[in-house]
Amino acid sequence: MKLLYAEDEKSMAEAVTDILQYHKFIVDTVDNGNDAYAYAASGQYDGIILDIMMPGMNGIEVLTKLRRSGNKAPILLLTAKAEVEDRVAGLDAGADDYLPKPFSMKELLARVRAMLRRRETFTPDVLTFGNIALNMHSFELIGPEHSVVLPKLEYQVMELLMLNHGIYLSTEDILTKVWGYDTDAEIGIVWVYLSYLRRRLSALQANVEIHAKRGIGYTLEVVS
Question: Same domain for 100 and 142?
Fold first, then answer.
């Protein structure tokens, strides 16, 4: 799952980003409202976390502008303000949930997961394709006889392929969706992780393979 997180307090941004990434979320982090709107408008995110008090546009302004433009991504607002008026303003502007600071990381994760379950396009906790399954809570790739827990980046690439099976994703698509828009990683890292996953699928005796089409990209296919 890919999240956009907007927070101008550096230590808070680093802590929340680390915990989200530890739990296998792909996270783009920005520190102001203008960048938050630009990223949200140009990228495809499963969910957005917005601090209300930010330079540039504040969180409610970003939220309002996104909803007016037709962006339907679920949005969680974070703020140090706990007044009823602020909660009402955020919810009336189209927020899906509201979490006042300070908050526990466990509660944040629970709110994010609940928010993602309420998306317009529901994604189950276990993705299946062919004779394999990907558990989005335990991060296990499950085959006919046994399973393996995937490391973070392997899991994120596999999740992207499972969610888009039958759709060809270019190397650049995979790089930006998994490693982020601002990554310094070279394009070759995508090929490395696709190779890792091909070996995983073979070891699990999967009837699924990562198919490449020259000049187009990669997708999952069931093979006989």
Answer: no
